[in-house]
Amino acid sequence: MSVKINENYLLLQNSYLFIEIARRVDEFQKNNPEINIIRMGIGDVTKPLTPTVLDAFKNAVSEMGNEETFMGYGPEQGYSFLAEAIIKNEFEPRGIDLDLDEVFISDGSKCDTGNIQEIFGLNNKIAVTDPVYPVYVDTNVMAGRSGPIKDDGMYEGLVYLPCIQENDFVPELPDEKVDIIYLCFPNNPTGTTLNKEQLAKFVNYARENDSIILFDAAYEKFITEDDVPHSIYEIDGAKEVAIEFRSFSKTAGFTGTRCAYTIVPKELKAVDNEGNPQSINELWNRRQTTKFNGVSYPVQKAAEATFTKDGKEEILANIDYYMNNSKIIRESLNDIGLTVYGGINSPYIWVKTPNNMDSWDFFDLLLNEANVVGTPGAGFGPSGEGYLRLTAFNTLENTKDAMKRISELSF
Ligand code: MLT
To answer: 369 pLDDT exceeds 80?
Structure first.
């Protein structure tokens, strides 16, 4: 055999977190086929596409079956009808001006946050919050920016910014110079947020240190408090230092349908080896036009319908439904003496394990005794040890049932 693999893949931890959870749950179900398991692990929605979105989707599918209206390849960056609707509905009302070619429609924020690192050099120093959405770390490991993992569960070459009880889940600024900082707020997995002042500190750090912030705002629609920014571009000067990722997945039930978008401002620059500034927008455009053929026309029409009057109302009703689940989870767990965070501006509730139990032990206990699936905090990084994440995306009935089952356990 002579074909060599990309050795960086050998530095990855076992399997992708959600695959490992699915494996344990499947095994449990196989051994206990009669048990009704309630899944509050992966953040997958349960509400179907709303009527307005579905109509737009179906109409667009019909157009594809008619010679007059059939669409072949679309623009790799997405159709301008959707980019226009995004700018008009999501950014203009917050005083943020964007050009159409700063919006890149895609099939998911997981893909975009995973792929974006390709356009940056391998020598960049990367900072991630800890715990963290595993995609940011794993894709940098695959690319060769991480070095090996240490005994403490941290990769040698990455900088970790702990988000823990002691700092109210607000990361400190890096105490060394880093080039790229991944931030996700409202945060996955802790469900906590940064207010404007806290986020501004990161923007100022990035401006002072010539760094770039990769801001994952996939959960911004779940924000209920006023002082929490929905977009990093609400902070002055952010366009020169930040890329923002948004998604229809959790907002409008598109986890199976697939549609998201990434904002890459034209002000954003990084340097080549000679120190000449290069446009990140142009590089991302080059990458997407080479490796991506765009999101299908019907899906983009469905996404556009989320911005109609009816579409907006229906989507907000679904978000309210999930946030009511969040409240039920927070209150029920508080009532039985557990410490919980998040869930106020986010569909994620970050539960401190009782009696300092380890995350995977608590996961197994909930699976085996309550038949409820969570996500062990340790799977999101070393600072997630001692926590477990629950999602509010299940049905109201299942959420209530899960809380009843957990309340009946003795810790
Ligand atoms: C999660 O559970 O963290 C999310 O569903 C993962 C994702 O959006 O890819």
So the answer is: yes
